[in-house]
Amino acid sequence: MLTRKVKSRIIFLIFALLLASIVIFIILKSLEKNVVYFLSPSEIYNKANISFGKKIRVGGLVKVNSINKEGTSINFVITDLKNEIVVSYVGLVPNLFSEGKGVIAEGKLKDKKYFIADKILAKHDENYMPPEVKEALEKSNN
Amino acid sequence: MLKNFLPNKILSINTKFFNNLIILMIIIIFPGVIYSLFISPPDHVQGDSVRIMYVHVPSSFIALGAFGFIGMASILNLIFKIKFMPLIGKSLAPIGFIFTLISIFTGSLWGKPTWGVWWAWDARLTSMLILFFFYIVYILVWKFVSNYEKANKISSIIAIIGLFNLPIIKYSVDWWNTLHQPSSITLTSAPTIHHTMLLPLIVMLIGLGIYSLIIFLMKYKTELIKFKMRQKKINK
Lengths: 142, 236
Prior knowledge:
The structure holds two protein chains of two kinds. Chain A has helices at about 5-30, 30-35, 40-45, 130-140, and strands at about 55-60, 70, 75-80, 85-90, 100-110, 115-125. Chain A is α+β, with helices and mostly antiparallel strands. In chain A, strands 1-3-4-6-5 form a five-stranded mixed β-barrel. Chain A folds into two domains: about 5-35; about 35-125, CATH 2.40.50.140. In chain B, helix 3 runs parallel beside helix 8 (about 195-235), helix 4 packs antiparallel against helix 5 (about 125-145) and helix 4 packs antiparallel against helix 8 (about 195-235). Chain B is built from eight helices and no strands. Chain B has helices spanning about 5-10, 15-40, 55-80, 85-115, 125-145, 150-165, 165-175, 195-235. The two termini of chain B are about 35 Å apart. The radius of gyration of chain B is 19 Å and the shape is globular. Chain B is mainly α. Chain B has one domain. Classes of the chains: A alpha+beta, B mainly alpha. The interface of A and B includes residues 9, 13, 17 and 38 of A.
């Protein structure tokens, strides 16, 4: 049914697409460092050579009962439930910043356990529900 | 299904059919907007800014879907040289472009109160911006390459390259750490979005989908007429 011309075009396109996907895969793999928006505390902990002077982002959950506010300065702990990093920050935090919720801090590492942030972003998760449902869920959990 | 997009079928669509589609769209979108803006509950953390989602998510869906169709049409076009394939791609581009713009814009409006920033160079947002540029280049090629056959070929190749971007957009939130949250609605597991919020989202998706279909059909019809006129000129 297919003429030879069409067949050769199909084969050519399949090869071109395969080649393109390999190229794109390699490009993305080599750019992975830049594609990743933030590092988790564990990734920082396991990383061999870390440049302390450079600006990076650390992300995870705000540890429950770790927020410590004094005036405009705020200290808290970012955790990924395996490793933790203490973050110190001066300034305003987004409304959604709260304990047990996702957060991304932008700034510089002092050492592997201490981070000085100059920007705090709140990360929203994929769960959407009305407040009443949230309350009901919490009640049933307790 | 492809048969329904054959030139003769499209050209025989009359205004009554369009009017019916428009009425259907209004019947769906109007309650959809009321539901999403007033009746559906606020979110437990985001509050009322969750309502932006009812426009943002359908827009992103349509933006990706439209480009997917453009890419498919381009592949069929290059392989089988079907005359009306490029016209389908060309007609889908404007609506996809507009919804990409809406998606980025509403996302930005949501990002400021939620994340604390209008924009972030994370994988999801950046790949969406790349889709936006693909739409621009695709449309510009059709606009500024005057030779039809040449424009057809270049735009098809661009669309096929752009096709690779779609899975990157879709899975960026799973493959890498991103600021953007992962999908709430997946094929494999139950949605992590409460049904009182899922319902208006689906209604809006259907409504805006019909809107896109109307714009596409109108544009496609115009493109077909233009194409026929051009052929008549060549044959003379």
